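Continuing the series of single-chain predictions for the mutant panel. This is the parent chain; the variants come on the following pages.
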Amino acid sequence: MSRAPNAAARKVASAALVFAALGDETRLALVSRLASEGPRSIAELSAGASVTRQAITKHLRALAVAGLARDTRRGRESIWELTPGRLESARGYLDDVSAHWDLALGRLRAFVEET
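Parent structure:
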């Protein structure tokens, strides 16, 4: 009998999707551009890129699967923009991990100071 994942497991799985998507140099660059320049078409995002337009499209779809970006149609073009909620949830996960490490290091410091 399998158990439904608890909230902590869902949070880890959600963050893992984000980190996996951002682990690729091209996708990280796309996120950076969308964050600094705002919504852009595939043609605009492909201009000056070291990869093909088809590769940019594939990377944007991977970002969409991870919940980091979404597209809307404007005529014949797809306009891509960031969906910052997933970045915020991943940041929250990192904050939780950091808090756990702070507690663990505090316990270690107390132990070392006692001995």
